[in-house]
Task: inverse folding
């Protein structure tokens, strides 16, 4: 009882009185306790332990851990885009503006960004919404992307990665108690930032299921079902869409987006469209349609009314600059007073990292055909996106050769989310261990092969189905090794737990 | 009613049904509405408007706006520390590692940081706690700062500026309902991040007043008073201290820190010590004592039990790198399970900006005497801190020559928080306008002189007293102009509202 250890929650003071810890699992904010975030969950912790063990000479049935758990391109060997890094380096150390080893277009970008910074320094706070000229560049970019649909830089907010923007908008929307508590519609499977933020804010999570049998398409009837059911116990106020999909890799059709927007219009829902993978479309049959452009094409009655926030990031696309924590959001039709409240909320955290803003600026303002860095920039961009497209196809193909694994086409984003057949005996064993069957599967996979994936249960899936999420980011050679090891593991796993039942394809 | 304007909250659909906005002032999260953040409040917005007006040729009784509202060093002309920017540039564009124009010690730092990054790229996510080797460097720095008090890098977490760490720790600590709701003790005057976070989390704010008549010292009796009073209606769980003080500029004595820690020990309080100004001590009679070192010197019964989180940042000190959003926190005696929960909470936001982490690394790991950048680094550091010390003294001296203004010594940090006498007739006028008297004062000051300060009411002050916060960051020449204009304005203001009463000194 009277221990001095930091692990004891109660110690005896010299005066004989008890000193309890202020912060224990019992007194911890229950909303924090409720948060789950599988992308960096127990599997990843274990992978780190194994990696350290390997370095210290521990024996494992493999020589390296292959991390396919997180969309972290550079960690998997993708090289930074030279032009982007040149601009950031110039902004960071402006003496380089005099160096002849930097191209003029990179210098021009850096000068423009620094002009927009207080004291012409990346070290100044920017306005909470971000540097003005970067917001202007983003608006121009969006107009071009959306073939002339007007974009007002007053509606652009730089963010600390897309996550920060998503959490800020959700925070605005959560209110009410009991049956009038805000409900947030999210796809299942989803990216667990959404469920984590909803838990933390004690909002109501409303699941709408994507249609696995139809390439993870969003089914409007399912939206209606989920909405009607939720209305019984909460106030649905916002619908979140991830397009291209994370973890599911699908690209939404224009028709589907129209249906979602019509639904949001009819039901007074705020639309949050997570479009961080807008540059990651691989399937020749698919095309990225921004929610904003589709809304515009539906006519002014829609375009002037539906409240929409769209999110983008430096972390994905062809640049993969996760560490810079750059991103932006564009908001449409936000009430003016609410907008002032949003700025106030953002201002408490002062501003997004300015070097991340600079990185964002390069992504929306890349070299033009007449500029010196144009050729190299496009060569690098094409190389990244080409390799990703190739790996997307290879992943789907190899996975679909494995009995008991079924993988939808990876149309976009950076992930496959295949369905895996887990034999009933393995399901029983997992249940008896108190873990989800796909968690057991992924743990065994990690221990036996060194491959680190995230169980489907971390993203949500239909009851009784099992999946994992894997990134397509390892190099082509490593990805091939990964997929082959995975195939062998899966076949062995099926055999080990074989029962009379046939594995389903 | 059937307007198409984005400002209308209700529109008529084509089918004749009403479409309401989802997000209005009525449906906005009330906790967001309750947030106040004066440092970027209405005065600052107005200053921006005036600045734009000046650029467009509007006439004002001045030619430039002088912003002394925010601790934004570079925006006020302070130059970045060369060595820090060299390291960040090298990390951003590693091809520069081959350039002969960068010193070897900067290259060595950059190589070490990149070694710690996935794929050796600043563009990878780091672990949620930050890059391992940077955490290790921080632990070494803390041990040196605290003359050998042990620091474990497992207790170090990189953050997105200090604000992010402060909000994360507070979030862990907030729980309970009604009388068992968590209470957070904060100094008054305070830095409004605290009150904003407390509002947002619906915790209970417990004010303890700093002693203005005693150089804004923290009075232990006042702590007891505030605590006992608060216990009646909430569960006080945490005490926040800002040392050196923001907005008040005092530096706490070792004795005072001991008293606070003893109090926290006795009352089972979690201690949050905001020490972002630890390098900003100007008064020769004052010295920075970290809460951790003082706790250590109180003996193992204290050092092994009191839960302490200490915060630091790249934004202040001599580097003033606000835009990089770098920072760290060190936690002591955190329950191990709670620690895992903290990591989980941080992991939802993935990681702090890696370039900010790199900047933090340079601050804790500056050039050593035998290294090539040593002399220049120390020359630059001394120049910044020397100028700040000079401006701290000048600010206090000039302000104290003005009748009706009384300014405590600016012992540390970057701010003066002088008390201003506002004549009763002016107070009445402000009340009739529905604004606080110091807000009216600062608005008039801005309109008449172009000087942008923050009213004391944004930080909290004893009822019936009025203050403003001003930074000491403008260049010496500009600061002198500012102080003289302020003096003239104040004298004119007193005259204008003169009554029979004498202004108090």
Result:
């Amino acid at each position: 009882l009277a221990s001095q250890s930091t692990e004891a929650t109660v110690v005896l003071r010299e005066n004989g009185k008890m000193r309890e810890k202020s912060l224990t699992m019992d007194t911890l904010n229950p909303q924090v306790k409720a948060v789950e975030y599988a992308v960096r969950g127990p599997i990843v912790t274990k992978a780190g332990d194994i990696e350290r063990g390997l370095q210290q000479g521990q024996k494992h049935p493999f020589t390296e851990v292959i991390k396919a758990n997180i969309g972290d391109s550079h960690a998997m060997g993708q090289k930074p885009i030279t032009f982007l890094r040149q601009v950031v380096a110039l902004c960071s150390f402006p003496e380089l503006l005099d160096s002849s080893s930097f191209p003029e277009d990179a210098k021009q970008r850096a000068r423009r960004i620094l002009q927009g910074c207080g004291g012409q320094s990346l070290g100044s706070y920017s306005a909470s919404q971000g540097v003005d000229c970067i917001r202007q560049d983003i608006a121009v970019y969006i107009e071009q992307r959306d073939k002339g649909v007007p974009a007002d830089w007053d509606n652009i907010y730089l963010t600390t990665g897309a996550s920060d923007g998503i959490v800020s908008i959700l925070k605005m929307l959560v209110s009410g108690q009991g049956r009038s508590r805000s409900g947030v519609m999210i796809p299942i499977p989803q990216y667990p930032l959404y469920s984590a933020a909803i838990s933390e804010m004690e909002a109501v999570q409303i699941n709408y299921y994507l249609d696995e049998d139809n390439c993870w398409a969003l089914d409007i009837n399912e939206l209606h079902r989920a909405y009607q059911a939720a209305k019984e116990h909460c106030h649905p106020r916002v619908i979140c869409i991830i397009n291209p999909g994370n973890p599911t890799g699908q690209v939404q059709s224009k028709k589907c987006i129209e249906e979602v927007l019509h639904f949001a219009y009819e039901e007074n829902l705020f639309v949050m469209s997570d479009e961080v993978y807008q540059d990651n479309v691989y399937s020749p049959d698919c095309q990225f349609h921004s929610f904003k452009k589709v809304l515009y094409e539906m006519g002014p009655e829609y375009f002037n009314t539906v409240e929409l926030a769209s999110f983008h990031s430096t972390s994905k696309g062809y640049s993969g600059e996760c560490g810079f924590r750059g991103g932006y959001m564009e908001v449409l039709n936000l009430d003016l007073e609410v907008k002032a409240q949003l700025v106030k909320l953002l201002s408490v955290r002062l501003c997004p990292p300015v070097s991340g803003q600079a990185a964002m600026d390069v992504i929306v303002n890349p070299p033009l055909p007449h500029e010196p860095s144009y050729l190299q920039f496009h060569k690098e961009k094409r190389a990244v996106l080409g390799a990703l497209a190739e790996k997307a196809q290879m992943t789907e193909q190899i996975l679909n050769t494995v009995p008991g694994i079924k993988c939808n086409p990876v149309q976009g984003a950076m992930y496959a989310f295949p369905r895996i057949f887990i034999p009933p005996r393995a399901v029983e064993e997992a249940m008896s261990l108190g873990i989800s069957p796909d968690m057991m599967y992924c743990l065994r996979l990690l221990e036996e092969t060194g491959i680190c994936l995230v169980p489907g249960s971390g993203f949500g899936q239909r009851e009784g189905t099992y999946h994992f999420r894997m990134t397509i980011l390892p190099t082509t050679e490593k990805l091939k090794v990964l997929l082959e090891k995975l195939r062998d593991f899966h076949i062995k796993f099926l055999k080990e737990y074989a029962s009379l039942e046939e594995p389903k394809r």
Q: What stands out?
A: Chain A is about 40% helix and 15% strand. Residues 1-7 of chain A have pLDDT under 50 and may be disordered.
